[in-house]
Amino acid sequence: MEADHPQASVEAKSIGKRLEFVELAVVNQEGDKEATEEDELQRLLKPNVDELPVEPPSSVEFNFVRYFAPDFMKEGHDQYVYRHANGLCVIGLAPSHVAFKDDGGVTEVDFNVGKSDRSSMKVTGKRKRNAQHFESNSALCKVNTKDASYIVRCCVKGSLLEVNDRLIKQPGLLNSSCCITMYQQALLGFSS
Fold first, then answer.
1. Percent residues over pLDDT 90 in the chain
2. pLDDT above 60 for 189
3. Alpha carbon 46 to its chain's center
4. Considering only CA atoms, which of 106, 158, 107, 114 is closest in space to residue 132?
5. Which domain of life is it from (predicted)?
6. d(CA 127, CA 103)
7. What's the pLDDT score for residue 33?
8. Segment 167-180 mean pLDDT
């Protein structure tokens, strides 16, 4: 019986060493996990300077999702839609639109299309009363060049909030800053 006791104590010591080893392994794994989380946090808070862009994105690039409608309703009638997260859509002519390929570019913008003049419309209040509701194929305005005129369509279903009145007085703004800073129409989009 005495011979079993020393052997039992040896087994207990080896089990104790195994438990100690397992406890150390668990502590090391948790320590490694905490270290990798700390490294990840530091990487996110302090980005690598070499990975940053040369110049920051513009507010349009940062705040809006860009969509292009090539050949909308007719060939060459390319338009863009910038959609904000709050549902606001900005609609305009894409640089590849046929109107910009004519000599002299856009010479006149006429918002008197259909039954009412779009530029005389005034939206009021939180619920945007008096806003005109449009389907995706509704005409917003007519863009004239020296030789032809083109109808600009809505592209999205929504309510017209405002038009850029500066385009009536200075239609050349479309030629100079198309698809960059000027907006043609502002629409409040909503799902069908």
1. 9
2. no
3. 25
4. 158
5. Eukaryota
6. 43
7. 62
8. 74
| Other CB atoms within 10 A of residue 162 CB | 16
Question: Which residue in the block uniquely carries the two structure tokens 């419309």?
Answer: 121
Q: How far apart are CA 136 and CA 133, in angstroms?
A: 10
* Separation between Cα atoms, residue 82 and residue 108, nearest integer Å: 23
Spatial neighbors of 93 by CB under 8 A, at least 6 apart, are 78, 79, 80, 99, 100, 143, 152, 174, 178, 179, 184
Domains in the chain: ranges and CATH? 63-186 (2.40.50.100)
> What strands, in cross-sheet order, belong to the sheet with 108-110?
108-110, 139-144, 149-153
Per the listing, tokens 């479309």 go with 174
Average pLDDT over residues 27-44: 69
- Mean per-residue pLDDT of the chain: 76
Question: What is the distance between the alpha carbons of residues 139 and 143, in angstroms, rounded to a whole number?
Answer: 11
pLDDT digits (tens, 9 = 90+) for 87-110: 888 888 888 889 988 888 899 999
